[in-house]
Predict the 3D structure of the following.
Amino acid sequence: MAKTVIILGAGVGGLSVAAKLRESLPEQDRIILIDERFEGVLGLSLLWVLRGWRTPDEVVYRPAPAVLPGVDLVKATVKLVDPERKRVVTSEEEFAGDALVIALGAELAPSATPGLEEALDGAWAGEFFTLHGAAALGERARKLGEGRLGVVVAGTPFKCPAAPFEGALLLADLLGETGARERVRVDAYTPDPLPMPVAGPAIGEALVGMLTAYGIGFHGGRVAEAFDGSTGEIVFADGGRERFDLVAVVPPHRPPAAVRAAGLGPSGWIAVDRRTLATSAPGVWAIGDVTLLTLPNGKPLPKAAVFAEGAADVVAHGVLRHLGLPAPEPWFDGLGSCYIEVGGRMSAKGEGRFLDEPAPTVTLHEPSLAFHDEKAAQEAVWLKRWNER
């Protein structure tokens, strides 16, 4: 009897799982991939759009039937997820399957911080987690001739734990290009005591040293409570206020509404088994930014595309075994890496084993042109793979 697998979300995780399942499932089995837009961009590309090294048109991928033969692509908004029945209600129709994979990612929630939504609507604040936002913020920074530029994390967790600090380094590099660097003070603020706390204090301190070396101030343990675009000030939980001429904000993130309502984990994020990516509902898996995967040290796995791609085999194997087909035992290894651009087309690289006990084992390599080129090669492979030929 033919089986049906439903995959929600055509980001890195969803696309990778769909491709791997199509290679292994019998032809008569149906794979349905549901996405609101079928258009995406890698996070690493957004930072290059911010810097002005890419245009928005150069970094968009638009998967079409030609690149996923044998997969039904349904453009629709997911309205309801019923994990117990593996049922999905969308803006177009209702679907039910034998297995369900949720890969709907994380969405920005600026309304969670007072004043932030209004600030982002004006000229004082911007974000670089969307294509339009990254391009617009880069243009604003290019016009900044003097004053203060703040890179502020407004809430955790967020996609790509290195992004705020990489963004600060690239914005400083951009100001160097425009000739304004000596007249603009750049500072980074985060609620965490150090950058990338999941990687451990040694990596965090190394990143602070990197920021300092490029003349960027680091301020850990600073929780932004409100944004006031009329005065150009941010109010922090410790009672302090800081005034900026331009703010690059990492907005709070949250799971999509349909996921929050599904009841598969705390705060709406989907709790998954750290080795299999299985949820508490039989026959249901989650992958990518929508998940809450707790590491042995109690911290969550970072929300990064490298982990979504790395877990695709694991989820595919779990689905195949659930459907009664032969497949290796699912086992996520937690290997991951990320690049941290410092400017001048130089990039550092952090890589490690995030499921090691008692805590992740991570190494931060010094910046080089080679790592920048390695990052560009990853981008090129992804864009070539998923854009219609």
The two ends are 34 Å apart (CA to CA). The first strand starts at residue 4 and ends at 8.
